[in-house]
Each structure stands twice: as C-alpha cells, then as structure tokens.
Amino acid sequence: MYLFFVALHVVLCLLLMLIIILQPGKRADLGAALGGGGSSLFEQQGPVNLLQRATTAVAVLFMMTSITLALYSSRSLRSNANVGDELERAAERKASAQADASAQPSGEAAPVVVPMTPTGGGETPAEPAPSGDPAGQATEE
pLDDT tens, 107-141? Predict the structure, then answer.
C-alpha cells in the first residue's frame, strides 16, 4: 500500500509540474511589460479555466498523498522505534560482548591490568620488571 501511495505521489508531482508549465502567464508578454494593454480578443478563456481546475484538483490530490505518506511514515517510526528498548538491547549486546571477551580458554593466564593513574595517597603502583629485555635494565660501566 505504501508503494502505491509513493508511485501515485510521484505521478501527481510530475502531472502538476506539467500542468503548471502549460498555463499561460497573465499579461506576462512583452507588450504588457512595456505598458501595452492585452487584447481580450485573442485570449482564450476556455482552456485557462480547464487548466486552473486541473491544477487545483491535482494540487489537492498531491497534498492528500503528501499527508498520507507523512502519517504512514510517522506511524511506522512510532511502532518500530522505542528508544528505551533500543538502549536496553544495546546494553545487553555490550554485556554479552564483554562476557565473551572475558571468558578465557583454560590453560591461559589472565592478563595483568596495571592502572595508569595513581590509586591514592600519591603512591604510584609498582611497575612489573621487564623480563629478558636488556634495553630496560640499567647497565653498569
């Protein structure tokens, strides 16, 4: 049903542009711009009235399809998007990812976590001594 309204909306949009382009301007010719009056002898009132009525009808239908599509979009957004539920789902995904990451296979040692900031009292945590790294050891000469 949504695609039907979208297709109808596009067709009405194109039809409305075509009808508006076909309408003659009111005294917009060169003679009227230079002060010359238009002659009512050569003006056709029949097609102008038909084009005006067609413009009005197509414009009303276009606005109706616009409102229908806006309501349809609004309802689908309200029914599918609940911010609280989405936040809960995101928290659950994050917790499950952390649980998967923290699960270590048996036989491996857990990594040592060393905080980068002092934990209290101005003391800094002891850094582990480098093992087998000659660049980190002081050399005596």
Answer: 566 667 776 776 555 555 566 666 655 555 555 55
Cα–Cα distance measured from residue 31 to residue 65, given in angstroms and rounded to the nearest whole number: 40
Domain parsing of the chain, residue ranges: 1-21+50-77
Phi first, then psi: give them for residue 37, nearest 5 degrees.
-85, 145
**What residues form DSSP beta bridges with 120?**
123
H/E stretch holding 138: none
- Residue 105 in contact with residue 111, Cβ under 8 Å? no
| CA atoms of 25 and 23, how far apart (whole Å) | 6
Question: Which residue bears the tokens 């001594």?
Answer: 129
Q: Is the pTM of this model over 0.85?
A: no
Tokens of 19: 């009808």
Condensed to tens digits (0 to 9), the pLDDT of residues 54-91 reads 999 999 999 999 999 999 887 766 666 566 677 788 88
Q: Distance (Å, rounded) from C-alpha 136 to C-alpha 116?
A: 19
